[in-house]
Design a protein that fits this description.
Pfam families: DUF1540. This protein is an all-beta fold. It has no helices and 9 strands.
Length: 94
């Protein structure tokens, strides 16, 4: 299985975000009730691997139509702000 790529990240204050591209090797999405990016980290330092485009490693949103056995099967996702939290914007209730 190929992990879904993060096609865009609008969370500019995240240590893994550089020029709207996530550089975390893999993120975790969800806290069982909200599709938050659990990997989001507000920091002054840069994180991640600059040569890597982030992917979804795990998703805890079992009610998402892209989720099967807590794995994301969307071709790609977008991450950004939903109200004041950083969420997976591709989340869609099944």
């Amino acid at each position: 299985m190929q992990l879904p790529v993060i096609s865009e990240c609008a969370a500019e204050g995240c240590a893994y975000n550089q020029d709207h591209t996530c550089h975390a090797v893999a993120i975790t999405v969800g806290d069982l009730s909200n599709p938050t990016c659990d990997t989001f980290m507000s920091a002054d330092m840069e994180g991640g691997e600059p040569s890597v485009t982030g992917r979804v490693g795990a998703c805890k949103m079992a009610d998402c139509r892209h989720n099967s056995s807590l794995e994301c099967h969307a071709p790609s996702i977008s991450v950004g702000y939903e109200q004041e939290q950083v969420d997976c914007l591709t989340y869609a209730r099944a």
